[in-house]
């Protein structure tokens, strides 16, 4: 099928008949612990039509760990962290990639899959961290610190990646920094992640004051209050959180590492200090664990809804394109990171 060809007619959305709900029952089983049946009756027709149209378009749907449970469990072909999504997209034979995440993730997918059409269901799905820095900012930093290599978190725009020497994830940031064999690096843009990395290495880090608007809202006092209510609770925190939060946590790690941390902890009650939807998504695989939900939602991730995904597939909108020169330079920074190590991503 030619992905540039829009079907002449898009079928009307099916009604949630008993027959449709029965056919969709195996999908609902994945999320019935976190999505009430009355809500599923509203979602099921969208899920059914998205899955049908996905096959017609030869499309693959990628969903970040922070997506709402219906998108995450109902329509995604691959679920995970931002880099993992892009890498999976590059491996598929799909013509179309629908990125259920935020804009920089779609850009990264376009960088690694230049031959594919990459769509994002809502162009306003941005990221406070990615938008905290520009390529021009990095050029100025390099003028101020000549010869100092730039290590950039993958949660950034293509323009920023293109100005960087190497990328990193929250899982491999320390390894990437130390792989350069230098005494000093410019580490961008997340200040809190940089502070955590600095505590794990002797390399001096020049930091930028970029923050994730979800993670920066957590506080150490909040963690202490959880422990007052339940001294046995196991606390897992993402390194994009402030230092006082990480100091109170039992485990600090990337989104992928946090999932592994829940399993390894053996705890009966946990709290994941990250975007709230992730707790819903992860809890499905741990029915014996009680997840306390500190409900800080990412407003940008929540822009991705089933109706918008369906419209994106119907109209093949909104396509994310990175110009060839920027894409090539950004790809080199990502590939250099992948050459350092191929362990867990973040």
Describe this structure in words.
With 346 residues, this protein is α/β, with parallel strands linked by helices. The protein folds into 3 domains: 18-126 and 301-315, Rossmann fold, CATH 3.40.50.10800; 130-212 and 323-340, Rossmann fold (3-Layer(aba) Sandwich); 215-292, Rossmann fold, CATH 3.40.50. The protein has 16 helices and 12 strands. The chain has a 4-stranded parallel sheet with strand order 2-1-3-4, sandwiched between helices. α6 crosses α16 (324-340). The chain is globular, with a radius of gyration of 21 Å. The model is unreliable at 1-10 (pLDDT under 50).
Short précis:
This protein is α/β, with parallel strands linked by helices and about 350 residues long. It has helices spanning about 20-25, 25-30, 35-55, 70-75, 80-90, 105-110, 135-145, 160, 175-180, 190-200, 220-230, 245-250, 255-265, 275-285, 305-315, 325-340, and strands at about 60-65, 80, 95-100, 115-120, 150-155, 165-170, 185-190, 205, 235, 250, 270-275, 290. It contains 16 helices and twelve strands.
Q: What CATH first level of the largest domain would be assigned?
A: Alpha Beta
Count of runs of 4 or more consecutive helical residues: 16
| Molecular shape | globular
Gap from first CA to last CA:
34 Å
Tell me the major beta sheet: 4 strands, parallel
What's the overall average pLDDT, rounded? Answer: 93
Order of helices and strands: HHHEHEHEHEHEHEHEHEHEHEHEHEHH
Tell me the helix content. Answer: 40-55%
**SS class:** alpha/beta
- Strand portion: 5-15%
CATH architectural name of the largest domain: 3-Layer(aba) Sandwich
Determine the CATH superfamily of the largest domain: NadA-like
Secondary structure tally: strands: 12
CATH topology assignment of the largest domain = Rossmann fold
Major β-sheet strand ordering:
2-1-3-4
